[in-house]
């Protein structure tokens, strides 16, 4: 699980069918001090996270595939919770 912040929306004109209907967000991992760490990544949003909101992101690819109900889906990360 990663501590991250939403930094943008991901839009695709062509994407895997399993991702239809899911909002994709660009997230930036944060370190223990809250500073950006690593490269931004795409995660599907299940909670309606807003821009600059801090979130917990699961890196459980199998869990993400369960959510989209397709075990051939390329999705690997999903927002698991919002941080107040």
Structural write-up:
- This protein has 84 residues and is mostly beta strands.
- The chain has one helix and five strands, in the order E-E-E-E-H-E.
- It has one helix at 61-68; strands at residues 2-9, 23-29, 41-45, 54-58, 78-82.
- The chain has a five-stranded antiparallel beta sheet.
- The longest helix has 8 residues, at 61-68.
- The radius of gyration is 12 Å and the shape is globular.
- The two termini are 17 Å apart.
- The mean pLDDT is 95.
Quick rundown:
This protein is mainly beta and 84 residues long.
Tag the structure with descriptive keywords.
mainly beta, five-stranded antiparallel β-sheet, 84 residues
DSSP helix count?
Answer: 1
Question: What's the end-to-end separation, in Å?
Answer: 17 Å
How many strands?
A: 5
Strand content: 35-45%
Mean pLDDT reading: 95
Which structural class is indicated by helix and strand composition?
Answer: mainly beta
* CA-based gyration radius: 12 Å
Low-confidence stretches: none
Q: How are the secondary structure elements laid out?
A:
Blueprint: E1 2-9, E2 23-29, E3 41-45, E4 54-58, H1 61-68, E5 78-82
Antiparallel strand pairs: 1-2, 1-4, 2-3, 4-5
